[in-house]
Amino acid sequence: MRNSDPNPDLPQGQDAYRRLLLEIRAGALKPGDRLLEVELAGRLGISRTPVREAIRQLEADGLVVHVPRVGAAVRGLDPGEVTELYEMRGVLEGTAARLAARAASDVERDELAAINAEMAAALGDPARMYELNRQFHAALLDAARNRYLARSVAGLQKTLLLLGPTTLEGEERARGAIEEHAEVLAALDARDELAAEQAMRRHVAAAHAVRLRQFRSRPADDVPD
Prior knowledge:
Elements: H1 12-26, H2 37-44, H3 48-60, E1 64-67, E2 71-74, H4 79-103, H5 106-121, H6 126-144, H7 147-160, H8 171-189, H9 193-217
Antiparallel strand pairs: 1-2
């Protein structure tokens, strides 16, 4: 199924926005794909008005742009922008790890370790790995106890959705991520703020390297202008 199931508890505009976000993350909607109100309304089973609201919200998020003579389309990222995103992610999440090394409770550290153990058990299941990885990074951010940092990370994560499916689909990268998480956890347990920040920066750099390899391997027709 191309889109997620509808959520009847949400207003149609918000639900359409949620479903389109999921399609962008899954790679079902790719950079350059047009967002046609009539086609989306028919596929999502709703009227054009909530679809229009969803497109406007995606545009406000910077995930959709208006292309001359084309209309609304999913925004593309070039390799330079990808590098800038991961550089900023390293700064923000490295800071989160440093703050968590100072502030995380025993319960929070245990939760992080449990999530990483679940990731190890979920090897071979990319969807589950993605969700557990999301939980790990969210729990670490919560443990940092800085609401302004959390807001900055949330904005960055929306732009990262444009990169499509998780890098954890490959087993080698998935195993590497689990080991890198373990290094962060060891630094948290030691209350070593510098080591925690450095471990997280290495983790982000490893993910960045995989993304760049993905870009180099894409067909020329798939590379955004």
